[in-house]
Amino acid sequence: MKETTLFTIDTPYRPALPVRAWTFGAEGKKSLAVMGALRGNEIQQMYICGRLIRALTAAENAGQLDPDCGILVIPCANQFSMNVGRRFWAADNTDINRMFPGYDQGETTQRIAARLFEALKGYPYGVHLTSFYLPGDHLPHVRMMETGYQHPEEAAGFGLPYVLVRTPQAYDTTTLNYNWQIWDTQAFSLYSTSTDCIDQNAAQLAVESILRFMSVKGLLHRAYFPAAVAPKIFRESCLHTILSHEGGLLLCRRKPGDAVSAGELLGEILDPCSCQTLEQLKAGCSGRVFFSHRSQLLNGHEVAFRILPETIAG
Questions:
Q1: Contact at 8 Å (CB) between 190 and 127?
Q2: CATH architecture assigned to 239-309
Q3: Are residues 260 and 283 in contact, defined by beta-carbon separation less than 8 angstroms?
Q4: CB distance 90 to 35 below 8 Å
Q5: Confidence of residue 228 (pLDDT cuts 50, 70, 90)
Q6: Which of 135, 99, 221, 122 is nearest to 180 (CA)?
Q7: DSSP labels, the chain
Q8: Whole-angstrom distance, CA of residue 190 vs CA of residue 192
């Protein structure tokens, strides 16, 4: 194990912040890169990387890493926003994960993305521990961009029950996942159940899924139980979205993983002052809750729940 500082970030009124990386295995080899928090509220994602670093250190000390592999882990690249409690770059509210592959002569977040991408590219496999654009909880899953270079069947190696394939929109072309794939890296975005708070069980699941993937690819010589069932691979468009029509307090009656029937109550929106029920949110199909909004103040016309139907067409 070797700890290095990739680069430092100058911040106003504060000392320069280092972006640190941990490498394992043979020096100069590139097998797997893991990127953690790019946003200031991705506490869980940074924590997962920390747990992964401990696990890889133990594996390397025990001689379980393949001698011809090289692993890179970057736990966090946005300490500045974390320090002040902001999701995006605190100085201008821009998102580092919308700046790839970066521009080394551009704005601060463009320069950060450029320095990160220089360190991350060239790996055959890449894992990004990321978060959803809405505050909420997901079922643990692996997500891939449909770039024409993706191989969703590769994601089965993580042993998670769901693999989601997303058709990229224009704004997705500046994400790490998309650009990794364009630059010949099989990129996987790994979604944990939480973002801004630590879920130790979910973190352990994420770490074990990465180690299982490494074992499947021959990077780690340690036996892991195979997944109990083959993962369900589906397109994001298959998810049934329940939008709010009213704004107010959201009380969730169901959580990710719950099986629901069509017409079943998922949650209620209440008037913030009188607690009068303004709207009941019901499942439009039978299936399993895949996402639920976490913030208890919900705007009108916002995604409250997403359901993975029992039967997926196509």
A1: yes
A2: Beta Barrel (2.40)
A3: yes
A4: no
A5: low
A6: 122
A7: -EEEEEEEEEETTEEEEEEEEEEEESTT--SEEEEEE-STT-HHHHHHHHHHHHHHHHHHHTT-B-TT-EEEEEEES-HHHHHHT-SS-TTT---GGGSTT--TTS-HHHHHHHHHHHHHTT-SEEEEEE--SSSEEE--EEEEE-SSS--GGGGGGG--SEEEEE---GGGGGSHHHHHHHTT-EEEEEE-S-SSS--HHHHHHHHHHHHHHHHHTTSB----PPPSS--EEEEGGGSEEEE-SS-EEEEES--TT-EE-TT-EEEEEE-TTT--EEEEEE-SSSEEEEEEE--SEE-TT-EEEEEEESS---
A8: 7
39 and 82 Cβ atoms separated by less than 8 Å: no
Mean pLDDT of the chain: 94
Q: What angle do CA 107, 112, 118 make, to 5 degrees?
A: 125
Cα–Cα distance, 50 to 36 (Å, whole number): 9
Tokens of 204: 């352990």
CATH of domain 2-234: 3.40.630.10
Angle formed by the axes of helices 43-61 and 200-216, to 10°?
Answer: 50
For residue 134, the model assigns a pLDDT of 83
pTM to 2 decimals? 0.94
Query: Cα angle at 177 between 174 and 194, to 5 degrees?
Result: 110
Domain ranges within the chain, ordered by starting residue: 2-234, 239-309
Q: CA 71, CA 97: separation in Å to the nearest integer?
A: 22
User: What's the pLDDT band for 224 if we cut at 50, 70, 90?
Assistant: confident
pLDDT tens for 182-197 read 999 999 999 998 899 9
List residues bridging with 51 in a β-sheet. none
Q: What is the pLDDT of residue 275?
A: 94
Report the DSSP beta bridge partners of residue 143.
164, 189
Nearest Cα residue to 267 out of 255, 281, 248, 246? 281
